Amino acid sequence: MGLPSRSIHLAACALAAGALLTGLVPASGALAAPVAPTARAAAEDPPTEDMPDDGFDDEHEGEQDDLVGPGGTAAGQRAPGVRAAPVPGRAGDFRLAAGGDLSGLVGRLDAALPKQGLTALMEQANRTAGWEAACGNTSIYGPDLAVNHRVCWAGDDLASTEWVPQAITGVSDAQEDEDWGTSNAEPIAVASYDAKNPGRSDQASGSQNCVQPAASDACNEKGVRVSFFNQATQKYRHVLLVWPYVNSKNNISFDALHASEGTCTGTVTPSCKAQNGIHAGGMVWYGNYLYVADTANGMRVFDLRKIMDLNPDNDADRNDPTPDGLESDVKDKKRIGRQNNVWYSFGYRYVMPQVATLKFTTAQNGGTTAGNQCYATGRPKASFLSLDRTGADHLILGEYCNKNNGGTSNGRVGTYPMSAITAAVEGAPGTVAADSAFGLPTGGTFNNETLWHKIQGALRYEGTWYFHRSNAYSNGRLLQATPGTVDGTTQLVGNTTILQSSYGPEDLYLAHGRGDGFAPQLWSLSEHAPSASCPGCKRELYSYNMSEVIGDFGS
Q: In DSSP terms, which residues pair with 415 in a beta bridge?
């Protein structure tokens, strides 16, 4: 399935690209040499409300939120040992196809702005994380598993109500030898989504309330950012993910990731539709590509060779010249893209443009997905992603579902050969078929509700499945299931053992250790910042020794 509302626009961009490219294209991973700005064009660039419709479906604001609707708020307790009954899945529902060709747009953006390689970006990381004991008490962790490594964010990221961490991946997903950058850098990447946007609008009809002096820089919907953490230096750096487009002046530009540009003409109210971001509940880094879950649509794909650097001299007080003869401003945190012939990035030094899209081809089930409802057939939701490197490399995709709010399914998971995924991103014709799919087990209860729902992350390791189950503002649970033959079909059967995990548990990532010789680690993260609702909450990355996880499940 393509992007019909942009197809004509993209074709025009591709035809015009050769004539419109200006400036020097720096080598991959290198900084562009400073270029003196030329005289600015007479025509000024508009704000981002003229961005064409991106062709993506919206996902509702409460995606992957335990607190949407009834249930899910009771205090945590150990789940009863009830073996969960399995249900089947249909691989055909998970079929994907490449979206519209973005190469012409990315090429123009590549020529306009300088680039920075990931290795150099990590070496220049500007935020210092807490490590191990520096993260303080371990009160957010349950008693069943010993936490091996802990990483805590710098102060503002630790407590931000705007940016909420969701997805995790790392160098073990990226390449088998785990060697990227300096020795023992072992980079980990975390995606966060913009969750709090008071008074935001799409700046339509001349209304620009988000750029007024009185407006907070949190006003705009900034979409998704990825934080790259260097384990050797224990520092990290944020990169803003963006969507490339051509504005109404025929100039290349970019905006934050949105499923909708919105229809508000003033301050956002319940009666108008604001910019709607994506949740980024899962992410896989494989080779040079970063795959980010887009719940309602499939996956958005980014190329780590295309990280743009809007402040090469690292001096935010001085605008930098760009290869296209303009300049970039990283002090203004309220603007994005090319506006009035200046490049903005909501204050971020680095932006990474989307280079491809993989969209579900199956029609949606007739039921509503509001309140995190899910269905056993039809198009799935892309709530989380992971990579299985045991055997042929496979991407895992699955659904978060809140059965308390209705729907007919606890959720499903599907698997795709990474060779087929990569081929589709790089232009191979046809669709990408899942080679297996399962419905989640259905038996068992927890806090007097369904056990096998509210899944925030899933991982397959050596044929066994592991699931992270959230529990509002209390300890989540780590679940295990194995494929078994039931009624002549292969289905997932849940282990009766249930292990307590952290408060607010999210996505799962396995650092396999085969390249560096370290013991395999099962990594995850907690999403909740301290608040009146959860004063004991903390945001941390953490890992368990995979051998202990396997042993505690009795397998």
A: 396, 436
Q: In the numeric block, which tokens belong to residue 19?
A: 């004539």
Classified as helix, coil or strand, 370 is helix
Query: If you search the block for the tokens 């490590």, which residue do you land on?
Result: 131
In a 10 Å sphere around its CB, with 0-12 CB exposed, 13-18 middle and 19+ buried, how is residue 533 labelled? exposed
For residues 228 and 249, what is the distance between their CA atoms, to the nearest angstrom? 35
- Whole-angstrom Cα distance, residue 524 to residue 528? 13
Q: Which residues of 482-500 are buried (b: 16+ CB within 10 A; e: fewer)?
A: ebeeeeeeebbbbbeebbb
* Contact indicator for 403, 457 with CB cutoff of 8 Å: no
In this structure, what DSSP letter does residue 30 have?
A: -
Determine the Cα–Cα distance for residues 403 and 85; give it in Å rounded to an integer. 16
Assigned token pair, 301? 């794909």
Which phi and psi angles does 543 have, rounded to 5°? -135, 150
Q: What DSSP state is assigned to residue 48?
A: G
pTM: 0.89
How many Cβ atoms are within 10 Å of 33's Cβ, its own excluded?
11
Q: Compute the Cα dihedral for 372, 373, 375, 379 and give only its sign.
A: negative
Q: Which residue's structure tokens are 């039931």?
A: 486
Pick from 507, 518, 527: which is nearest to 546 by CA?
518
- pLDDT tens digits along 126-167: 999 999 999 999 999 999 999 999 999 998 999 999 999 999
DSSP state of 518: P
